[in-house]
Amino acid sequence: MMTRPFSSRSRSRALALLAASAALVLTLSACGLVSSSGTFRPASLPGGERPLEGTSVAVTSKNFTEQVLLGKITATYLAAAGADVDDLTNAPGSMSSRQAVLNGDADIVWEYTGTAWQTYLGETETISDPQELYERVRDAERANGVEWLPPSSFNNTYAFAASSPTAKRLNVTKMSDIAKLPESERTFCINDEFLSRADGFIPMLKAYDIPLDAPGGVPKGNVTTMDSGVVYTSTARSEPCNFGMVYSTDGRIKNLDLVVLEDDKKFFLPYSGCLVVSTGVNEANPEIAELMAPVSAKLTDELMQELNGLIDIDGADPADVAYDWLKDEGFIVPVD
């Protein structure tokens, strides 16, 4: 298999990212770590066009599965369109990819609207409408020298799930159904971070009228904290909990046959995936937005679960998963 090696520009930028990450604090949970070789598979557009000929861009990502995959999809496709692409995916630390784009050490990254709203912009208002949140983030971020392209069709937000047999036994399809269950069935598995978040477990229970350790609510003894990965397997076994906190695009949802409950009171902030491009690169190369729009539109929750699962569960290389998906969808063809 042919791969694209690091260029000298890649090396210098990668060193800058490594140095920057030492000063940054890890603030987001990772759902599957993968190593990035800084490579992607070569391809071309079906008609042989090269609309980005002469354009140089650096694509970066955070260091968890979904982010690396999205970076590889972007790097592969833009290179197929003729761009000279530096692959800086899997940047160490959850903030270094963000900082790299702000500093001009990278040009393109995938981000989430909820992350930007709370973590980058420091906002506390809960905006449940995905389009409104996107527009607020997009407009605010222009002052930071980045352009948020229109959101994809996936939303990697917090959610609660149950095993398929348990969801059927309890007749639950949405979060508000939990309040109708006997107290003994209101059992939860969560991680420590979600328990302590200002927008996490305790206010969520209050929003759904089942407050923690209150009459008619959820007893503290019904809540078990554990590592995020263990939450999935515990939820699949329905032991010690019927309901587990998950990330809505995680590959383990499909693999373990979990049923994600509808957040019918719209408690959770949307985390719509968006391609973010530095303002200068976006203005100089409007073809990037045009090329990526149909790719972004195809990325649904169900598809991301499937693709993430190929990496986290089956052990596939993110570069191969990205290439195969783009090829299967007709976006690229193999090079001769």
Automatic annotation (TrEMBL):
Gene Ontology CC terms: ATP-binding cassette (ABC) transporter complex
Matching Gene3D superfamilies: Osmoprotection protein (prox), domain 2, Periplasmic binding protein-like II
Coiled coil: none
Short name of any one Pfam family annotated for the protein: OpuAC
Residue ranges annotated for the ABC-type glycine betaine transport system substrate-binding domain, each copy included: 56-327
GO molecular function (one): transmembrane transporter activity
InterPro entries (alphabetical): ABC_Gly_betaine_transp_sub-bd
Name of the protein in its database record: Glycine/betaine ABC transporter substrate-binding protein
